[in-house]
Design brief:
mainly alpha; 2 domains; two-stranded parallel sheet; 44% helix; 2% strand; globular; hydrolase activity; HARBI1-like; hydrolase; Protein ALP1-like
Length: 165
């Protein structure tokens, strides 16, 4: 899987939803400029639900079977992306622990790793020996700090209704 967008320069402790909200990807997606209708970016429940950013139903103990199945399918799809991060950090172990202090060099290091990762994928470089599994098995513990968009709610419902049982 290719990395299509990389937005760097924020401290690692910054909430991912805040980083996304401040990215050009967010602005373009909100204006319908970069994500084809019917395609989605998949995120966990800490992110705002949009018609282009699909998040799971919040489990408040009252999810029906169809909503639980939707969440399972979304989680499975997210694991593919988490595996890409494992491949990236497995191939380029320097990305596991960056000790450089100059921000511009850190950004260059990360972007270079993403570009080289894509070249490896395009040239069918075997990565299995380098896999780094960072997934701790726990969903993002951050609360959703943004309000879900009504378009996203309707879009998620429609997507769930089209899923095979």
């Amino acid at each position: 899987m290719l990395i299509r967008d990389a937005y760097t320069g924020w401290p690692g402790c910054t909430h991912g939803a805040r980083v996304l909200r401040n990215s050009s990807l967010f602005d373009k997606a909100e204006n319908g400029q970069c994500i084809v209708q019917g395609n989605f970016i998949i995120a966990d429940s800490a992110y705002p639900l949009r018609n282009w950013l699909m998040t799971p139903f919040r489990d408040n103990g009252r999810l029906n079977a169809q909503q639980r199945r939707f969440n399972q399918m979304l989680s499975s799809a997210r694991k593919i992306f988490e595996r890409v991060y494992g491949h990236l950090k497995g191939r380029f172990r320097r990305l596991r622990e960056i000790t450089v202090r100059k921000l511009t060099r850190i950004v260059s290091l990360i972007i270079s790793g993403c570009i080289l990762h894509n070249l490896c994928v395009l040239h069918h470089d075997d990565v299995e020996a380098f896999i780094d599994n960072d997934d701790d098995g726990h969903p993002n513990a951050y609360p959703n700090i943004y309000v879900d968009g009504i378009d996203g709610v309707l879009c998620r419902q429609q997507l769930m209704n089209t899923m095979p049982l």
